[in-house]
Amino acid sequence: MKKVLLTGFDPFGGEAVNPSWEAVSQLHQRKLDGIEVEAIELPTVFGKSFQLLQQAVLEFKPDVIICVGQAGGRSDIALERVAVNLDDARIPDNEGNQPTDKPITFDGPAAYWSTLPVKAVAAAMREEGIPASVSYSAGTFVCNHLFYNLQHMIASSSHEMKGGFIHIPYLPAQVAERPGVPSMSLDVMAKAIEIAIKSSV
């Protein structure tokens, strides 16, 4: 049986919820077409987020790792294609860290490509009526930090794995007081992640 590890983040930036964790937790310990799914919540903290991901990978030994994060203001599911070797935080993380213009790792390349089939996953989502696209910027906050470290780990590992990062919009409740800001329902986001799991495996 194939194993997929999902990750979402805790709330940050003054938000009461983080849709990434709300969505991936819908699929926790589910069996999807012979695929075993595990989901974990990570802190929105540089360094610590990846340490906990590493621990989960060692314990669960997944074939595919899909990390999910909130991208407030985006209107669709964004399949991130590239992670850059840069921490440059516009706001502090949840422990007050705010690195500026710092490499994530000194012995890694400037960037890594996702090892998920991002174009195929986005197409499969759109076929199900879910707005989705391939994105070429995961930012320089904790999402990109985790994404880059994930790809660096995969590139350095003897265990064959695929992995990547998906950004999702706000939930409707998060934009109730923000006219004109896009959102997406939890059910649709969870369905999109389910499609990503099946397409990637």
Automatic annotation (TrEMBL):
GO terms for cellular component: cytosol. Gene3D superfamilies: Peptidase C15, pyroglutamyl peptidase I-like. Keywords: Cytoplasm, Hydrolase, Protease, Thiol protease. The active site is at E80, C143, H167. The keyword Cytoplasm applies. Its EC number is 3.4.19.3. Coiled coil: none annotated. Pfam families: Peptidase_C15. GO terms for molecular function: pyroglutamyl-peptidase activity. PANTHER family: PROTEASE FAMILY C15 PYROGLUTAMYL-PEPTIDASE I-RELATED (PTHR23402), PYROGLUTAMYL-PEPTIDASE I (PTHR23402:SF1). Removes 5-oxoproline from various penultimate amino acid residues except L-proline. Homotetramer. This is Pyrrolidone-carboxylate peptidase. It comes from Paenibacillus taihuensis.
